[in-house]
Design goal:
alpha+beta, 4-stranded antiparallel beta sheet, about 30% helix
Length: about 180
């Protein structure tokens, strides 16, 4: 059977677009980082509490939750997870001067549970779309968010300004302060 260029392009496009990265199960993985938002020092052994949705943007959180349930239902929900960094880039890069979010420092953590890797910029852009009244655009960004990243891509981003995050349904325990 002969395949035309148009058919081949369609096959390739559909196979790439249908790739959803599922959460991975980890046990005592100490290659993750967590940002303490409170200025108090966190001691080793501290178990990081679950973060809920961002309350002042609950409408967009609901859109993202709907898309998660449709596209990647085994991924940890943003409504009930711990947010961590898969590398010391993006959110967890060394602060220059005073940076919002680093008040309590960045800590190396041990993770056990299900971990889903995402591009946080898909959340940011979805929020902007929603703010402009573009609900469909926000939903498209939610699809991109829940398609996720493979662990290798998340841990070794192309740029120090790549804002990758990992959502954990499990236990996150502080090992030591990084900075």
């Amino acid at each position: 059977m002969r395949v035309t260029r148009r058919q081949l392009r369609k096959i390739i496009t559909e196979s790439v677009l249908d790739q959803t990265n599922l959460p991975v199960s980890v046990t005592s993985d100490s290659t993750f980082y967590w940002i303490a938002r409170d200025a108090r020092e966190v001691q080793p052994g501290f178990v990081v509490p679950v973060s809920g949705p961002i309350k002042h943007v609950l409408e967009i959180e609901n859109i993202y939750e709907e898309v998660r349930l449709e596209l990647n239902p085994t991924a940890p929900s943003r409504f009930n997870c711990v947010y961590i960094c898969p590398s010391l880039n993006g959110f967890c890069r060394k602060p220059v001067g005073t940076r919002f979010g680093h008040l309590g420092g960045v800590y190396k953590v041990r993770v056990t549970g299900n971990v889903f890797f995402a591009d946080a910029e898909m959340w940011t852009e979805g929020s902007f779309s929603y703010g402009r009244g573009d609900i469909e655009g926000a939903r498209d960004y939610a699809v991109g968010y829940w398609e996720g990243l493979n662990p290798q891509e998340a841990r070794y981003p192309d740029s120090e300004y790549s804002f990758h995050e990992a959502l954990v349904n499990g236990t996150v325990t502080v090992i030591e302060r990084v900075y």
